């Protein structure tokens, strides 16, 4: 069956890409676009990165790219990968290769000229498609049929593919979340379940990067369910064990209904317990960024908000805590109430309350306390612990009064406090 992406791939008509492909194909060599760009075009999805496979050896790739006027950077030359910047866009160009030795994390490769061997070393059939410069698709592993069926399938023996790189266990569920329909491939699922202990060999950064991509899928709930069934979710994210993933279904529905942007951190919070100590351990283990770790911690520390809470009371809690933490809490509460409202009319009222409070929290801006230490020293206070205590007490009174006391009234209270000793 002959398939072409010509006419469907605007990116393929880019003159710089065409010139690069032509340069790499001179003198009997070959070059084709490979992997995700071909897959996504066939599935009608956006194309972000464009990778190229070539029979040229890495140094020859550099020579040809530079001779064509492009910048070449040896980003992974030991594995045959050169990044070429053409027309302001980066293209990752890799020499055809075969794995000759693997340890479950990285591989030693040998370069070659056999397109079928290059395809067979890849992970899934839908990722092993190539496209010629004219758009004709080259399928050596049955990827087109799997794309048409929205079926995710390992190339060859699933266990062999996984043992080459245990990250492929998580990639199986991530690609299923993005591209799969129905049930996951049975043999692939069994292999992931059998070899899940191999995840312990992977770096924390690789695990979190893969989980974050999975949690960014339009609807990761089915993939998470199968991960739980195969005990892979517990192996990768033990904090989710005994907590449950039911909330993720209601969250993804709320995102679609309310126009929320899919948020991997919020989705993570939906499947782990709001326990600050455990979230600190999780963030350290998976090497979260500082911003990610802080957000998870603030969410865990934010106390639950009841749907009948007033805006004034919520404002006090927002002032004392972290707004994003409370926004996350309220979003999850709203999603949960909406999910329950299908069978529980009381939950519909709760959803209304959470919606009201969420709208308030999102727009809320933290007021500035009108007094500083210098204001008290101007009244005769001596710098030290006592001054700090008075200032904190005044701020607490100001918050409890709904931030209503103005600077003049607060200065009067400060003078009274100082006079009282």
Commentary on this structure:
This protein has a 7-stranded mixed beta sheet with strand order 3-4-5-2-1-8-9. 52% of the residues lie in helices and 10% in strands. The mean pLDDT is 94. The chain is built from 21 helices and 9 strands. The protein is elongated and about 95 Å long. The protein is of the alpha+beta class and 421 residues long. Strand 3 and strand 4 form a beta hairpin. Helix 7 packs antiparallel against helix 8.
Q: What labels would you give this structure?
A:
single chain; 421 residues; alpha+beta; 7-stranded mixed sheet; two-stranded antiparallel sheet; elongated
Radius of gyration: 28 Å
Q: Mean pLDDT, nearest integer?
A: 94
Query: What is the succession of H and E elements?
Result: HEHEHEEEEEHEEHHHHHHHHHHHHHHHHH
Beta-strand content estimate: 5-15%
Protein name: CCA tRNA nucleotidyltransferase
Keywords: Magnesium, Metal-binding, Nucleotide-binding, Nucleotidyltransferase, RNA-binding, Transferase, tRNA processing
Family: Belongs to the tRNA nucleotidyltransferase/poly(A) polymerase family.
InterPro entries: Bact_CCA-adding_enz_type3_sf, NT_sf, PolA_pol_head_dom, PolyA_RNA-bd
Describe the SSE topology.
Elements: H1 15-24, E1 31-34, H2 36-42, E2 51-54, H3 58-67, E3 71-76, E4 81-86, E5 89-95, E6 97-102, E7 107-111, H4 115-120, E8 129-131, E9 137-139, H5 143-149, H6 158-164, H7 167-179, H8 186-194, H9 204-215, H10 221-229, H11 232-236, H12 247-258, H13 264-270, H14 276-285, H15 290-301, H16 311-320, H17 323-340, H18 345-363, H19 373-378, H20 385-400, H21 407-419
Parallel strand pairs: 2-5
Antiparallel strand pairs: 1-2, 1-8, 3-4, 4-5, 6-7, 8-9
Helix pairs in contact: 7-8, 7-9, 7-10, 9-13, 12-17, 14-15, 15-17, 17-18, 20-21
């Amino acid at each position: 069956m002959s398939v072409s992406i010509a006419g469907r791939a605007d990116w393929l008509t880019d003159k710089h890409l065409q010139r690069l492909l032509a340069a790499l194909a001179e003198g009997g060599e070959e070059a084709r676009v490979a992997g995700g760009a071909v897959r996504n075009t066939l599935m009608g999805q956006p194309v972000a990165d464009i990778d190229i496979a070539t029979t040229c050896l890495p140094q020859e790739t550099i020579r040809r790219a530079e001779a064509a006027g492009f910048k070449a950077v040896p980003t992974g030359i030991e594995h045959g990968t050169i990044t070429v910047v053409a027309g302001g866009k980066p293209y990752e160009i890799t020499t055809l290769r075969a794995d000759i030795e693997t340890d479950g994390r990285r591989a030693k490769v040998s370069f070659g000229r056999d397109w079928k061997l290059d395809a067979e070393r890849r992970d899934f059939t839908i990722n092993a498609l190539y496209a010629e410069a004219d758009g004709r698709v080259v399928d050596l592993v049955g990827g087109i049929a799997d794309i048409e069926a929205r079926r995710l399938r390992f190339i060859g023996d699933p266990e062999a593919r996984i043992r080459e790189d245990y990250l492929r266990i998580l990639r199986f569920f991530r690609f299923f979340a993005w591209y799969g329909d129905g049930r996951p491939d049975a043999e692939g699922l069994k292999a992931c379940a059998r070899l899940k202990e191999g995840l312990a060999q992977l770096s924390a950064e690789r695990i979190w990067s893969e989980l974050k991509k999975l949690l960014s899928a339009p609807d990761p709930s089915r993939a998470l369910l199968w991960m739980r069934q195969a005990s892979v979710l517990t192996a990768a994210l033990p904090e989710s064990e005994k907590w449950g993933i039911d909330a993720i279904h209601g969250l993804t529905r709320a995102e679609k209904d309310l126009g929320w942007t899919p948020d991997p951190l919020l989705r993570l919070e939906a499947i782990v317990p709001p326990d600050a100590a455990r979230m600190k351990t999780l963030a350290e283990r998976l090497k979260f960024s500082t911003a990610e770790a802080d957000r998870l911690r603030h969410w865990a520390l934010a106390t639950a908000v009841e749907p009948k809470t007033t805006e004034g009371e919520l404002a006090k809690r927002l002032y004392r805590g972290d707004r994003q933490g409370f926004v996350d809490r309220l979003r999850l509460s709203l999603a949960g109430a909406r999910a329950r409202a299908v069978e529980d009319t009381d939950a519909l009222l709760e959803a209304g309350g959470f919606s009201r409070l969420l709208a308030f929290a999102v727009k809320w801006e933290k007021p500035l306390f009108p007094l500083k230490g210098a204001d008290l020293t101007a009244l005769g206070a001596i710098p030290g612990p006592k001054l700090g205590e008075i200032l904190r007490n005044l701020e607490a009174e100001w918050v409890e009064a709904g931030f209503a006391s103005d600077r003049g009234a607060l200065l009067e209270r400060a003078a009274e406090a100082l006079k009282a000793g």
